[in-house]
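User:
I would dearly like some help making sense of a protein record. Take your time, and here it is.
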Amino acid sequence: MNEMIKKLVDAYGEKLIDNRRYLHAHPELSFKETQTAAWIRQHLQAAGIPLLTGIHGNSTVGYLKGSTDGPAIGFRADIDALGLTEENDLPYKSQHDGVMHACGHDAHTAVLLAMAEILAQHKELIHGTIYFIFQQAEEFLPGGAKGLVEDGLMDSLDYIFGWHVSAMDTVGTADISSGVRTAAVGTYDLKITGKGGHGGSPHQCNNPIIPAAELVSAINLIPALKCDPLANCTVSVSNLICGVAGVDNVLPETVVMGGNIRSLNTDVRDFAMAEIKRLAESISAAHQCQCDVHLVYGYPALDVDAACAAIMEKAARETGLTVEKKNPSLGAEDFAYYSQKKPAGFVHLGLADPTGVHAPTPHHNPSFYIDDAKGLPLALQFILTTYLLAVKELNTKQ
């Protein structure tokens, strides 16, 4: 199988790299990927791939049906970029000021498009139905995945697979494990309103800094005192704004503060969010202040199905990748919404320069760099191998 897939990837040629670099030069922000979506749809239709109807926004879903029975399997690529100004001096650097593909979504899109175009030319490899999911807005809440779930996409699927580049890991590595792989996240913003006044008359005021100061400690104690030590979370106070610097004899009317919650357990995230609301309202009330609480429930935890992980691990080894078993990340990924509905597989593939000429770079960084020439052909081989193993080993019964 591996030799056959390698020949297909070789025959596809430089188009894979050219497409990624075109997309890199023309990034668009979340929910604004209109030109990217048009480019994707044009290529899918030119390849004879029909588009699924009922999909909203800038997401696009193409599909192909095989002549034999098999599972309905989706493969997803996110298509949005970030609000950064690229600092790399590359011939294909971003042409859009203040917007950059600094998380590798251009690579995801190019690989999935290549997969679609190859399978459109080799329908004998398709069993059941394969869906090519080009998803808008992974980087911005509420996330494009949530919209596709609401559109009913997951009702058509038996399984779904996704992948993400890692610019910190060298080409030829694959981080694959089952279970929870990314965190459930949430944010909170509080506005505490008291009664301002003169520092010489504190008894005539309700200083909102007092409950805010108590809340900093109370919120940070949630993981230690309120959560199961074996199913915990991290809670941060990220900002606290009040008063006027240099004006020391005025007690402020309001304090605003906020932060974020992350947990590998979605229920723990939900509990911590509710606990912050309870503490904020009760502590503020104890000091005769009012607290307005705004909670944003972000992406849930991403749970990778064991059977899907096993297939991806087998595909990685057949492709010649080194399989690694890293700890879960407290970063977030809206692919998690799919994993709540159907068995899902997800992997991080190393795309850092193995020669060291370009040092590994963090994601969401203006110097973000991946070795597409070496890494993307391997990624395409891996994804195609994953599909062929999946249709062979997975059944349609859920």
